[in-house]
Write a structure and sequence with these properties.
Rossmann fold; 7-stranded parallel sheet; alpha/beta; 21 helices; 6-stranded mixed sheet; 3 domains
Length: 522
Amino acid sequence: MAVFGAGAHTRWLFLVTSDLPQLPITCIIDDQPEVTRLDGYDVCRPDEVDVESLDLILVSSDCWEEELSNRMVGLWGDRIEMVRLYDGLPRGPYDKTDDRAETLRCLRQLAPTKSVESRLVVIVSDQPRSREAKIGHALREAGWRPVLLHRGKPTFDTSRFFDSVRRFGHEWEALRFACDYSPVIFHIMVNSDYRIASLFVRHRPGLIVIDSYDLVAGMYTDEFLVAHRDFAHEIARERYCLEHADGICSRSREPAVLEDAWGYKLAPRLFLPDGCWNRVVTAEPRREGGLRMAYVGRLHRGSRYGERFAACGCNLALARALVFQGIHLHAYPSPGQMDRYEKRTVVEYRELARTNPCFHLHEPLPPDRLVGELTGYDLAMSIYPERFVPTGTPRDFRAEKLKHCTTDEFFDYIDAGLPILHNLSPDSLLSGMLSRHDIGVDAGAWPIEEWASRLRQVDLAPMRERVAQAREAYDVRHGATSLTAFYTRLRDDVATMETETSTRFEEPSDADRKDECRLALV
């Protein structure tokens, strides 16, 4: 093939495709060339090219594509196949400021043996949540220096947990920012979108640890994936990241499912649940009489005990059933949900709060302020509505999700000193944590209309004392010890591998290089 046009567009095109296998370009054609060579290719006039030896010519311009195409027709008619990148689109120029070209240039300039900044960790997050804040806090307490690169607006004061913070607009800009650092680890947080993570794994500005909030494969039901194609499209990216990263830091046991049942060959992994801030905070008890229950998380719709549910949450019918029994239910929606679901969901909960004095709808709180607010209640609710929805109701998650996952609010409840009302399966991860410390009230076999009367028979005082012990056990600072040891082990493993490889490396032959090119093209 040849490229028609030796201008700025061709220079940009070569930059943004420099990470691809080398294309079979024989030359660049231009009517009035200003140079004789461009990016390693000869620049020729049209009369210097044997078009009969070419399969196709790529028209390289977004501003003058039509004119160049007409020029080619005038020169060669239909003797050569012509490829137009912008055929059918309005005339350019098109925006080329996505940082891809600049990022690839920065990556090429990274020294292969650049020195690593001791105890520096760069956390990259599409949407920072409480887990990012807790990891940043834990690393700081351990004497490390956490840096946050983020796209979405954080739900907390970043200056309290990170040494520095930078906001990026898209994944290529995140990768370009990463080139400015030489950390021990790039810790990539994923919230069901692996585009940023896969870019980091592919281009490797350093060692990469993947930390996924929710896995996709094996966790979502087939019906959900059919209805939500954007999630389904993440499965391939997810597997690529989990198998090719240097390590996996997981808040749940979900990766074990992919390894045992799905045959994934995962990178080394660390189980690191979110944990507790473990700051003793006391709040003034609520003045309303009766039992006071807190709920943090998603608020779902549902005229019955369910229409469609994620793995956990509170639906409108469940909330009504509790407050009509005289239980004071205080609901704290997830950050961002008040805007996202205002018209179709939260408005119904506002109406319930207006008509029933036992239901209290609060504004979402930053993760570091939430615990202080929760301490004024008697207990918390962590309900999985699988047991409350009619048979045949569409589910979002498979049973494996309920068995192996953890949730943000679980540790917030423990942090606030609250026993937890739940309906968890006995073999689930969270149920095991509650049983280990004897801080859970199992309502799985209770009829919903008897919850209030049965809860009044439970002595919560000794349970609250045990919750204080659990809070110490799940201190995020304990997690920092495991996390930093994991970082160090990954670095040591890579250093050992590089040493062993260098001792037995041989320069590849020309035949080997040709085979590599063929495989790359395939």
